[in-house]
UniProtKB/TrEMBL annotation:
Protein's UniProt name: Copper-containing nitrite reductase
Keyword Oxidoreductase attached: yes
Claim: Cell division is one of the keywords in the record: no
Binding residues for Cu cation: H185, H225
Keyword terms, alphabetized: Copper, Metal-binding, Oxidoreductase, Repeat
Essential cofactor(s): Cu(+); Cu(2+)
Source organism (scientific name): Radiobacillus deserti
EC number(s) reported in the record: 1.7.2.1
Family the entry assigns: Belongs to the multicopper oxidase family.
Amino acid sequence: MERWKMFDHCVEAIRTMINKWKKFFIKLKFYMETSLLVLLYILVFLLLFWVVSILQSASQVSLLDGESSLRFQQSPIVNQSTDILQQKYHSYQPLLKNQTMTSNQAEDQASPSQTAITGTKKDGVREFIITAYPNKVQIDQNLTIEGWTFNGTIPGPVLRVKEGEKVRIILRNRVPNLKTTIHLHGIPKRNAADGVPLLTQPYVNYGEEYVYEFTAEPAGTYSYHSHGDVQQLDKGLFGPFIIEPTKPTELPDATTEWVVSLDEMDIQGEGNAPPATDGNRMDQSMMQRMMPNAILGSADVYNVFTINGQRSPSEPFKAPANKWVRIRFLNFGFQTHRIAVEGMKLYVTHTDGYKLPAAQQVNQVVISPYERVDVYAIGEEAGQFRLYDTDRGHSEFGMEAKIQLTPNDNITQETIPIQKTNDNKPFYQGLQVGIPGSDSTQYDRVYNMLLGMTMGSNGMSWAINRIPFSSYEEINPYVVQKGDIVKINLFNMSPESHPMHLHGHHFSIVSINGTTISESWLPKDTVNVMPMQRISIAFKADNPGQWIFHCHQSHHADSGLVTYFTYESKDSNEEEGS
């Protein structure tokens, strides 16, 4: 009997040991698989960087088809002036309590959860007081976040002015330990009001204020936002800026207008981010989770999607059926969004604030970071519909809103000019770029810019022509003269999209992947260059100053994808040549 007990005890001990070893090997297998996965990601990343480097080297010989004779132009070093033109800068004692909208600023509803202010008129100048301060913002019934706000809301209030008005914006910084500015995005104002820290103005520190003055023109949909690091935009320092026309246009009088501001947030505890959709459809969020400092996948971590600062807004967008509705779409996030509107026909009339020659009908609106798209929409039947992001997971994570079209028997007779498009012609994000053909423009300057990655002293960085931005004093600006017609050949040699934004000017797309455009239809100030895509843009140098050109996926800009243009006088050029 004692022997059997001893035998049972030995069997039990063996079983226990086997179970322990099983658990050990299961854990070992898990750790080995995870390590191999991390190693695989690193190897793929290094291989990708190696391939990109080879392609970049090869492309130095010929950047674009048919343009092998173009010499790569390196700009000479220009002495950086530290003088601030017509600077208006005041030290301001900090107010320790949060400020709200001043009582003399009218407030109304522009769209669900999106307020608007018209400012006050003083001595012929329309003045806005914009205060940046921390505030708790309710995203939906179950989620409240600690954000940085303009006048207490995310997005900041819609600023509305009339075309040709003199505008004064007083920025007050009440965010502790923050240095910031305001940039009026897309408006070709004077250089001193551009809001780029250390280039056109000093930082506005906590407790200080800064005054921006400019003329509001031309009419269109624009935006305003902080111009610091990516965190400032992530936390909510942005808002729409609308310039209304003073003269009648050929478009119908839309009695209903919707302002639709799109954004993403990274909120801990709100689930895993949906698959990436920045243009290459590659989900790089795992790389970001394993290597937070990786430069790839930085926009793939967002797990809360909002419309006008709300996750799946409870209030619907309302309009009568059979009447034109003007929809102003603004993308304040870092991903491209593809927005469908049920129950309505969509006609794009403006891109980045500027009118197209004729409207183009689309099934969905494709809009990349900090682009704006204006749409005239009409629904023929009353009912309940939806505005939503068609990308997988985005509407489920909050980028959807309800639409309520009310009955209306008074059918509008007004029509809009519609452009007939051809599926075989070059398109940019669902819109036909223009008429293909030879580009007969005589360009005064042609610059080639390779958008990609490079290895620097601080590791991997984003860069233009392998040069990551460090400071305005340490990089060579691209030089233009007033009156120049300038062409920029952009070649994205990286696996991520780059929405490139030019300050102070608007431009036209004149070539896509080697197909030249003889008549361009799309006026832009921001263009999204997808992976391995070639896009050429052209602009007239008609606004002297120093103007930044950068990727508006701001993670990329913070990591080096920035340069700038500077104007040189023709007199100084003649003196140098004499």
